[in-house]
Amino acid sequence: xxxxxxxxxxxxSLYTRLVTRVGAVLLVSAAALLIAIWISTQFxxxxxxxxxLAGSALQIAENTWYDHGEVNVDVPLAAxxxxxxxxxxxxxVFDPRGRVIAGxxxxxxxxxxxxxxxxxxxxDGQYLGTPVRMAIIGRRMxxxxxxxxxxxxxxxxxxxxxxxAQSLGSRALVVIVAMSVLxxxxxxxxxxxxxxxxxxxxxxxxxxxxxxxxxxxxxxxxETHALVSAINAFMQRxxxxxxxxxxVIGDAAHQLxxxxxxLVAQMExxxxxxxxxxxxxxxxxxxxxxxxxxxxxxxxxxxxMVQHRNDSSLQARIDLGELVRSQMTEVLSNxxxxxxxxxxxxxxxxxxxxxxxxxLGEAIKNILDNALQYGAPGLLQVRLESDGQRHWLRFIxxxxxxxxxxxxxxxxxxxxxxxxxxxxxxxxxxxxxxxRAHGGELRFAYLPVGHFAVVLDFPAxxxxxxxx
Length: 468
What we know:
The chain is α+β, with helices and mostly antiparallel strands and 468 residues long. The chain has helices at residues 14-62, 77-81, 159-194, 196-206, 222-272, 276-310, 320-333, 357-374, 427-437, and strands spanning 64-67, 70-73, 89-94, 100-103, 121-127, 130-140, 149-157, 316-319, 341-345, 352-355, 379-386, 390-397, 415-416, 424-425, 441-446, 452-459. It has 3 domains: 28-166, 2-Layer Sandwich (Beta-Lactamase), CATH 3.30.450; 210-311; 314-459, 2-Layer Sandwich (Heat Shock Protein 90). The strands form 5 sheets. Strands 4-3-7-6-5 form a 5-stranded antiparallel beta sheet. Strands 9-11-12-16-15 form a 5-stranded mixed beta sheet. The chain has a two-stranded antiparallel ribbon with strand order 1-2. Helix 1 runs antiparallel to helix 3 (159-194), helix 6 (276-310) packs parallel to helix 9 (427-437) and helix 8 packs antiparallel against helix 9 (427-437). The chain is rod-shaped and about 165 Å long.
């Protein structure tokens, strides 16, 4: 599959994003706090001035009396002076018949006669088109009638209370703005310090040598520990890949040097040989060395391919019986001679495993090739057995087999074949790597009847757990 180039696009600075968000939160908080303080100051100013207004009205009421059938009032100067400067005070005193006996005769607000028993009443009103705040107090008089009240109405314009509320609000605004600026500066410094580990991580990576893939050793906060762990894990995988690549290249160079040198030498001998019989012998050796070299190159390619695929995610669901059947068909179709006792025995139900079909197919072909080339003069049986948890794939032949002393040695790449065979083999090492990658095991055994068996032990397919 063609590779895809991924471009990393630098977006806005994380520091800028955090500062912007913190600033937005502070701005919204400051606005909400300012609105709350403004409303509170309005209520506070209203309540404070209402109490002064009601107190002044009570002083006038205390100096109101009934004498000889008339309501009399003596308005104390202190009652009006308590209202302060900057406002205009208006008052009117009404007798039980609703006549103005003192104060401004043009100031005639509506009197709530039925509510006077409740005590001082505070109302908003108008005086000559100007908004005022009124305190209405009734003083019971010893007269008969539906309204036995002398009513004192004291009003005050709203200049002083508005000025007081604005003064408190302005001071609160200054304090809030100053605290918001200080908080933002402190937050910027704190965020800069909090993001410093990212700068240290960047510097540690930039200062590294290109060949240094050792883990980063840094003390970082818990929030960035996962990032550093992911970088270390990636570098570890990269180091493994690079080591594998170097090993494959080194093994290939080492293993190809001798057969290529021998091939060149054989060609030089052939070019200088005049005797026809010797020339034919050289040609035969040349063909054999060329065939061995081709097989070695093919094994090197397969070995590299298996190592690469084993690092991939092995998630495909594979029917082991179908895979063995297809690989046997492919291998036997390229053989001129096959054992007379050839069989494949698989269970009727699928034996499912999780893995990579290509690398597994390569492992099975290597075992079949070894069995047909070095053993199985008359018998080759392939049996697939299962108990539901594990699957066992057995390759049984009647050849000489592999001595028990060589079982571990032949699992390693480029182990000498022994028994005077030319070159080195990768077949069983490929099988070993494939089985290890699939969580399985490669085993050898001699059966009681004297036959030799290669056993592949696989874990059965387990459906992935579904997150709830």
